[in-house]
Design goal:
The protein has a domain of 34 residues. The chain is built from 2 helices and no strands. Helix 1 packs antiparallel against helix 2.
Length: 67
């Protein structure tokens, strides 16, 4: 049995969600106060956020490349 193929729009939406989440975490890790959070000012979250931004970009690139 084969897996159903996801539409490019779904893949782009997923990429955008991943990248936006990464941007929020990156900002919090860099100390930008977005509400009261334990993540503000913690460099770990800046690194995780940056990785998610890159992952979101790669997912978007792959989704657009395969259309």
């Amino acid at each position: 049995m084969t897996e159903p193929r996801r539409s490019p729009a779904f893949k782009l939406l997923l990429a955008a969600i991943v990248a936006l989440t990464g941007l929020v975490w990156l900002a919090q890790g860099l100390g930008v106060p977005i509400g009261g959070s334990f993540m503000v000012g913690d460099p770990f979250w800046a690194v995780v956020g940056a990785a998610l931004v890159v992952l979101g970009g790669v997912l978007a690139w792959r989704a657009l490349r395969r259309t």
